[in-house]
Specification:
mainly alpha
Length: 79
Amino acid sequence: EDVYPFSTPQQQTRFEVLTTQLRCLVCQNQNIAESNAPLAADLRDQIYQHIIHGQSDQQIVDYLVARYGDFILYRPPFN
């Protein structure tokens, strides 16, 4: 299990929410919080780094969507 040392409980909560709202691109039917795929672990690490560097949830989601496309979202927008 991954251990991420956050400085505030709010950061921990943000991490938990974000990782449950984003899809594992390998598993496709799991969020990245539940997935054991190496890519999901990398995405969790990226989210952690973005949070501790002060980025907002929207900035993090926008970054991941720009990099991986709307499919990373569990509820992608209808286009």
